[in-house]
Design goal:
By secondary structure, this protein is α+β, with helices and mostly antiparallel strands. It has one domain. The chain is elongated and about 65 Å long.
Amino acid sequence: MAIVNYAAGDISIKKVENGWLLIESHHTHPERLMYTVFESDFNSNSNTNVDDAHSLMRLVGEAFESYCRSDKTGGIILEFNQEGWENEQKETLLKENKKDQFNV
């Protein structure tokens, strides 16, 4: 494995067995590395990938907070859904069918 040389403020993200590992170099002392584990603790009881997705979203939100949308500035919006697109599409169809029933 190659050795990574970190400059001030560099970030690495690594998938680990129990979630995700955030590796950050210190802003003024790049030789000092800080390690934070974002455990997959959503506890969906159904899908490990759902748990991993939730912990990855938390990591990205913390590591890249300055790029996220705030009250006064634009930026990225992080969103997590436990259900897949199929569930959302079914709900949309049900709403449309209810609207159609009232418009008859």
